[in-house]
From TrEMBL:
It holds the Pfam family TetR_C_14. PROSITE patterns: HTH_TETR_2. This is TetR family transcriptional regulator. The keyword GTP-binding does not apply. Residues 1-22 are annotated as: Disordered. It comes from Streptomyces inusitatus. The lineage of its organism: Bacteria, Bacillati, Actinomycetota, Actinomycetes, Kitasatosporales. Keywords: DNA-binding, Transcription, Transcription regulation.
Length: 212
């Protein structure tokens, strides 16, 4: 998923990043943008880590220090790291699924043109490149751990609770299908509306549209 702009929090938010953290973030962004530009120009397979490093003005070893694989660079703009923070900032009595839906769709609705272009490229590559789809499964597992902790804390359950793990897996599976559906339809739909629809479907189920 593309980088998600955080929904407005009801707290003062995390402390500002220090100089070292800002430099790291700047480097990550430079590597990711260089990758997207090169892939858009010459294709994924033709783009090498050496080319990415040169375009981002870093060494190949620096690229690998930030991203273990080339696939990780493409997927790095997925669910925003602040998602966990924003989820924890939602009203305690709010239904967890509604909290997730509101945080994610609010962020997607605030996409800049550049963020949308990155999301379009990322999801197109998810469809076209098997290695990226495979790596996405591993990436989802890491995101799942973050959300499981936040949702368990919100609901007063242990972090290893099966119900929380199943719920989180269902949400992330729904988001994965939304990304693939959006790409398959040539990105014509409104992504925030698709996510809203998918998460409402998790809550309401699939209803019969016509008599059997």
């Amino acid at each position: 998923m593309a980088a998600i702009t955080p929904a407005p929090a009801e707290t003062s938010g995390p402390p500002p990043m220090g100089l070292r953290e800002r430099k790291k973030l700047k480097t990550r962004i430079a590597i990711r943008r260089a990758t997207h530009r090169l892939v858009a120009e010459q294709g994924y397979e033709a783009t090498t880590v050496e080319q990415i490093a040169e375009a981002a003005e870093v060494s190949p070893s620096t690229v690998f220090r930030y991203f273990p694989t080339k696939e990780d660079i493409v997927l790095s703009g997925g669910l925003h790291p602040s998602l966990e923070t924003e989820l924890r900032a939602r009203p305690p009595a709010e239904d967890p699924l509604d909290s997730l839906r509101l945080v994610i769709t609010t962020g997607l609705a605030a996409f800049t043109p550049e963020e949308r272009a990155e999301a379009v490229l990322r999801t197109r590559l998810m469809v076209e490149v098997p290695a990226i789809r495979a790596r996405m499964t591993e990436s989802i597992a890491l995101t799942s751990d973050l959300l499981v902790r936040a949702l368990a804390d919100r609901t007063g359950r242990p972090h290893g609770d099966l119900d929380v793990r199943v719920f989180t897996a269902a949400v992330l599976g729904a988001l994965r299908e939304v990304m693939l559906y959006w790409a398959a339809r040539d990105h014509q739909d409104d992504l925030a509306e698709l996510v809203d629809r998918a998460l409402r479907t998790l809550r309401d189920g699939v209803r019969l549209q016509r008599p059997l």
